[in-house]
């Protein structure tokens, strides 16, 4: 975990320092919208930006590598030390977790697990493409796309009971996984 701190200390400190600003933004947004929407808007951004910054942080000692074979990186984690597994797996699950959990609370269009999956997959594909094209010394892997998208969906599933309004309406979502059970 020391490696995480040494690589991402500025992002972690910046995230902590930005918390009062995020709270202030929620309070300001509450003047124009509900508490739920204000927290969802600010929280989705505040909870996602640090992870995006980390994924786009150059690794000076790393080599740019492309891995398009599904599940190969995940299989290699099986023999890795526990701290590496935790950082890689949990970190990738959390990249779009805030967006997946909170966007459905704010925007009716996201009240569908396939749409949240699409958000995670497209967002992650953009990240992996940028990592490779910008030559950040990182591995651009299809497994990261899969785990990032899964993290968004898992987080969305956790907040699913709160997607609906008090009267049970979904505010315009019909069909698919967006229906209330």
Automatic annotation (TrEMBL):
Q: What are the transmembrane regions?
A: 6-27, 39-57, 77-104, 116-134
Q: Name one Pfam family in it.
A: VanZ
* Origin: domain of life: Bacteria
What the entry lists under InterPro entries is as follows: VanZ-like
Which UniProt key words apply to this protein?
Answer: Membrane, Transmembrane, Transmembrane helix
Record's keyword annotation contains Chloroplast: no
Identify the residues that the record assigns to the VanZ-like domain, covering every copy. 51-160
- Membrane: is it a keyword of this entry? yes
Task: Report what the protein is called.
Answer: VanZ-like domain-containing protein
